Every structure is written in structure tokens, then in C-alpha cells.
Amino acid sequence: MLAEEAALPFPESPCVPAPQPKRVPVEVDEDLVLAAQDGDRAAFTRLYEDFAPMVHGILLARAPRDEVDDLMQDVFLTAMTRLRGLRDPRSFGAWIATVARNRATDYHRSPHGSALPDQIPSPRPIETEAWLILETIQKLPEAYRETLVLRLVEGMSGPEISERTGLTEGSVRVNLHRGMHMLRDALARRRA
Amino acid sequence: MSDYLWDKTGIPDPEIQRLEELLEPLRYRPGVVPIRRSRSRLRYAIAVGIAAAVVVAVFIVRPRSHPWSVSLESADRAIRTAHLRAGETLRTAPGQVAHLTLAHVGRLDVDPETTLRVLSSRSDQQRLELLSGTIHAHIGAPPRVFVVNTPSATATDLGCSYTLHVDPSGDGLLRVTSGLIEFDWKTRRALVPTGAVAITRVGAGPGTPFFDDAPPGLRAALQSYDFAHQQSALPQVLASARPRDAMTLLNLVQTVRAPDRTSVLATLAKISPPPPGVDLSAIAAGHFDTLQPWWNAVTGAKRRPAVRLF
Question: Are residues B131 and B263 in the same domain?
């Protein structure tokens, strides 16, 4: 029989909702990385889902837009084959960010195809303006353009960018601040 | 730098918003797995294989299992860490406590001599079974995601902190420190808000919840009514109820026999008049869906509840 008056401690706890998974989660699931290293394809798929926006943003900041999808595929293919070599599962975000940056660098170093794409879509006017802005961002210094693309295109917040890429919050803040300042100036010059 | 640029809080900068809107079409679109046109046949084949596997897996693996992170603290302050997965059981020794955490769900503090099993651990449902002992749950997951089974009732979190105790016989006690918990067994159901307690007994399910400071006469009468099935205790319950105990009567009106609803409603209306829109005759007829505004008024809920309660 339970004593109704049982003295149970009342822990203090404000009713604060736990941060729920967003499209870009801010935590690297260590077990997920370990499972993927053991060949768990479902775990790798989940990592793909979680990190695809960041990889997409990093590539978009450095490579022609038409090549980004192909380069993304390269990045995750490389990640899958080299994942076992990653010593610290917690650094998966920083690691795959580096893979993406290196892949973009390789793209610019190597001669790439001159073949025309299968289809040349006619951009809508709003997309034309988006491309012009992206082109302006791509001319900014590397650190700024990557952070700006992740923030403005991929919709990640500063803390998420920091968590995902492994950059310190201070670096991301500075990059966002300076990058935004330079982007405003560049767009104003362009309009003038 | 505006907060909006950093973490999307504060007053939005119109220029940044405009850039976000313009650039949004360039954003990564989930579900679109790129397939290379061709660079080499072998790599193309590998890539297509990966892409296909990714696509298939995306649809098959959801929702996936997430283990709880466990930190076990012994009487000598030694700390061990582990993971607790679906199907696994945690038993704390005398003098040993455990702290369980799971991202996006919350934290559990487990008292000594407690046996806790993980029944399922998915992103859309975390279901545990408290076989005996005491847990203190601090949950931030959306309502109805975190559920704890006990031998005599099931506690469903509607947000956010409570203590649940099960003694060796399987009887239990739920004490809500913050938020609202649904406590049910078969057809019996109790809504337990902040500061309230509900007793549960094997074979009977949860009793009517009452506030921790409820008069002893009310508590005793509720125990007689809920668990000894003494109909004669109902007048004592109604006579002992203070205005603050309207919460208790709002629970009670749903569990009493149909002929007794009228007397419960009469007392309830006297100690806490119903707000406009509450149809007493409908409630008396067993249609409890109009209780929501009354419940809001009684419990002081200022926001619309995230889940339907009645």
C-alpha cells in the first residue's frame, strides 16, 4: 500500500520546452556517426539528411550553382568511403565541412567539363535576382561568403552554423557581421 | 549586429529579410538526391546505388531509435556513464542515483532502488516502464511524446515536470511540479496539473487528483470513493471541496456515475462558476468536450492548450 503522504522531493524545474529537432539539428549524434562508421547505411542516410544543407551551403558559396548537386554527391561519396578514418565522432560536422571545402577547391583546380547541361532552364525573374545576389556573395572573402550563404540561403542561425561547422561562435559572429557589411556595400555599388 | 542576423531573434532587419526571401529558392531541398550525369561508369554506378539506398532508407528508417544517455552516481560519488536503449532495463542500487538525458526530450533523475525499462525510444515516442522506485521527469518534448507505464496507470506528459513513484506492490503516486500530466488506466483518466497529486492502485487505476494542500477530509473521502468504491463518500467529497478544488471536481465529474453528475456539477458551479460557453446539461449527459473553457478558467491556463484535453 502506498502512503499517500510519502515525502517526495519537488525538484525545481521551469516549464521550458526542449529544443526540438529543426531541419538542421544543432547536435551531432555521436552514436549515429559510430553506427555509420560500422557500415550502418540507415545511420549514414540520417547523417546525409542532417548535414546536406550545410554541405550544400558550403559548396554554393564556392562553386557554380549548376555543379553543386554533383559536388554534393561527391562529398557524401567521399565521406562514406573515408568515414572510418574519423577519430572523433563529435567532429563529424567540421570534418565533412572540410571535405566539402576541399571538393570545391579541387573543382576549381581541375579542368572541368565543357559539356552543356541537359537542359538550360529559363530562370524566373526572382531567381535571376537571387543569382545576382549569390554572385555578389561569391566574390566576398571566403570566410564571409560561406557564413552568409549558410545564414541567408540555407536559413541556419549563427549558433547552428557554429555547431554544424565546428567554427567558434565568435568567428561566426564576426564573419556574419563583416560579411553582411561588405554585402550591403557591394549590393549598393551594384545598384548604383 | 542585430540579433536577427545572429539568431533570428529581435526586430527583423528588413534588408536581411528581403535577402532571405530572394535567396530562399536556392536553398537545399530535402528529398532530392542528386544523380551525376556521368563522369565514369563505375563511379556513376556507385553513385546511383548510394542515391537509391539513401532514398529507400530515408523512407524506411524513420522514426529511428535514440538511446538515453545515462550517468550513474554511486554513494561514493563515483560516476559511470552508459547508454540505455529500447528493451534495456536500468536498476539503481541502494545509494545509487541515475541521471538520464535525451536530446529534444528532456531529463530524468532516477532515485536509488528504482527499476526502469525503456520500451521504445523513437523521435515520435519515448515510452518507459517504471516497475518500482521513483523518477523525477523534466520533459520539454511536445505533448504526448514522453510516456511512462506503471503497473497501475500510464503517465502521458503534456508538459513538463513531475515525480512518479511506484511501490513494490505496483501502486503509485504522481506529483506534478509543473505543467500537466494525463494519468490513465483503461477507462479511467485523470488530468493532473501543477501542484496536484494523483494516487493509483493496481486494478483500479488512477484516483481523482487533488491539490497537495487539499483538506484532509477531502483526501480521505476521495480515497474511499475512488478505491473503496463507497458511493456514500461522494457527499463528503463535495462538502469538503474549496474553490481551489474545482480542478478535482472537474476530474470527478467525468468519472462519477451518470446520476451523480448533476450533484457534482452543482457544487462545481457553486465554487467556480462556469465561463460562458459551458453547457451544463451537455456535461450532465456525458458530453465532456465543453469542459475545456472551464478547465482553462479553473487552472488559470492563459494559452490555448497544445493538445485537446476533453
Answer: no
Side-chain half-sphere exposure of B119, counting CA atoms within 13 A:
14
Which amino acid, one-letter code, is at B181? Answer: I
B22, A126 in Cβ contact below 8 A?
yes
CA-nearest residue to A118 within chain B is B37
CA distance to partner chain B, nearest, from residue A154 (Å): 5
Yes or no, beta carbons of B54 and A48 under 8 Å apart: yes
On whether the A30-109+125-191 domain is CATH 1.10.1740.10, my answer is yes
Domain around B33: 21-62
Q: Do A70 and B142 touch (CB under 8 A)?
A: no
- The interface pTM score, or ipTM, of the predicted complex is 0.77
Task: Examine the domain organization and report whether B39 and B71 are in the same domain.
Answer: no
- Nine cell digits for residue B95: 545509494
CA of B29 vs chain A CAs: smallest distance (Å): 8
E strand segments, B94-166: 97-102, 106-110, 115-122, 125-139, 146-149, 154-166
Residues 46-75 of chain A whose Cβ lies under 8 A from any Cβ of chain B: 46, 48-49, 52-53, 56-57, 60, 65, 69-70, 72-73
Residue B146 Cα distances to B2, B121, B124, B179, angstroms: 37, 9, 9, 13
Dihedral angle sign, alpha carbons of residues B222, B225, B228, B230: positive
Could you list the mean pLDDT of each consecutive 10-residue stretch along chain B, which spans 310 residues?
A: 74 85 84 46 59 49 67 82 87 93 86 94 87 94 90 91 96 94 91 96 96 96 95 96 96 94 96 92 88 88 61
User: Is the separation of the CB atoms in B117 and B96 below 8 Å?
Assistant: no
Mutate to test the interface with A, among B3, B21, B28, B174 (most CBs of A within 10 A): B28
Chain A residues within 8 A of B67 when measuring between CB atoms: 31
Q: Which residues of A fall within a CB distance of 8 Å from B223?
A: 4
In this prediction the pTM is 0.54
Would you give the DSSP letter of residue A85? G
Give me the half-sphere count of Cα atoms (radius 13 Å) on the Cβ side of residue B24: 7
B32: number of Cβ within 10 Å: 10
